[in-house]
Amino acid sequence: MNTAGKQAPAPGQGIEIRHCHELADFERCMELEREVWGGNDRDLVPSTIFVVADETGGQVFGAYDGQAGWRMVGFTLAMVGLHGERRYLHSHMTAVVPEYQNRGIGRMLKLFQREEALRRGIELVEWTFDPLEIRNAYFNLVRLGAVVRRYKSNVYGITSSPLHGGLPTDRLVAEWWLDSPRVVAALEKGAAETRPAGDAKAVRIPVPREIQNWRTTDRAKATDVQRQIREEFQKWLERGYAVTGLEQSADGGSYCLEPFAELPGMSR
User: Fold this and answer.
1) pLDDT value at position 161?
2) What is the structure's pLDDT at 266?
3) Are 60 and 19 spatial neighbours (Cβ–Cβ below 8 Å)?
4) Which residues are bridge partners to 203 per DSSP?
5) For 77-95, how does the pLDDT look when each residue is reduced to its tens digit (9 = 90+)?
6) Which end of the chain is more exposed for a tag (fewer CB within 10 A), N or C?
7) pLDDT at 5
8) What are the pLDDT digits (tens) for 23-70?
9) Treating both helix axes as pointing N-terminal to C-terminal, what angle do 47-55 and 23-37 enclose, rounded to 10 degrees?
10) HSE (CB half, 13 Å, CA atoms) of 138?
11) Conformational region of residue 39, where left means phi above 0, alpha means psi within -120 to 50, and beta covers everything else
């Protein structure tokens, strides 16, 4: 087919985000899990959990393409949690099918999530993400303005997903303080700010770009690099630092860390 002269769809064009309440939608979410992450059925979140989340004050949102018969092309699943007496939402999954990625749909889902949570008086949404996936980390930290104060080792165990490459499922815990000056500024300006690299209190933790290839070509090397990165995060987070950004380069990326107590509007 000749595609000369055709333009790529504008970000979010024809996409609508809305609540999911029907079993058919929850089953479609399961299909999207398979499309996005692969793996076998034992690693899928079943439709019954989507039902429970919807019935107990969580969030199940779908992204629907109006130009494709309102096909669901992405979703978000979140559950209600408590830190002491503070209510928050744990956003367990946000997925967009591969052919719709890089069109701003993930951001649309997160902004819808933020607006819905704030309407209910919920100020915090958390989720986990793989520290080795630097593109996703950039989105979470820079585009959305989340911060990280916790590193969890092998949270979900070794999964069957080819994306994980048989490595331990280490995760950073994103804290998205929805009404904080940091998040508001990140959403308005398109990027959150961090301390300059030359600042005496700035810390950088590099992640080599080759780590994605090593997952499949040299698992021993990938495991060793993951261990080194884990130890660096644990060291600095234990000292009261927070992850506030990620700088990308041709070599990979470098996480930016700074003292949490000195972040404006973040003394929580």
Assistant:
1) 76
2) 73
3) yes
4) 257
5) 999 999 999 999 999 999 9
6) N
7) 43
8) 999 999 999 999 999 878 888 999 999 999 999 999 999 999 999 999
9) 130
10) 11
11) left
CA distance 253 to 168: 20
**Residue given tokens 């590193």 in the structure block:** 151
pLDDT digits (tens, 9 = 90+) for 190-209: 999 999 999 999 999 999 99
C-alpha to C-alpha distance for 162 and 73, rounded to whole angstroms: 21
Tally helices (H) and strands (E) across the chain. 7, 10
For each of the domains in the chain, give its residue range(s) and CATH number, in order of start. Answer: 15-192 (3.40.630.30)
Give whole-number Cα distances, 91 to 53, 81, 122, in Å: 11, 10, 13
126 and 89 in contact (C-beta within 8 Å)?
yes
Cα–Cα–Cα angle for 208, 209, 215, rounded to 5 degrees: 90
State the DSSP code for 128: E
CA 265 to chain centre: 22
| Tokens encoding 177 | 């303080």
3-state secondary structure of 38: coil
> 3-state secondary structure string, 161-190?
CCCCCCCCCCEEEEEEECCCHHHHHHHHHC
Please give the Cα distance from 227 to 188 (Å, whole number). Answer: 36
End-to-end CA distance of the chain: give it in Å, rounded: 56
Sheet with 147-152, side-by-side order of all strands: 15-19, 59-65, 71-83, 86-96, 124-129, 171-177, 147-152, 241-249, 252-259, 203-208
175/144 Cα distance (integer angstroms):
10
H or E element at residue 28: helix 23-37
- Answer whether 128's CB lies under 8 Å from 4's CB: no
**Residues, the chain, total?**
268
Name residue 241's beta-bridge partners. Answer: 259
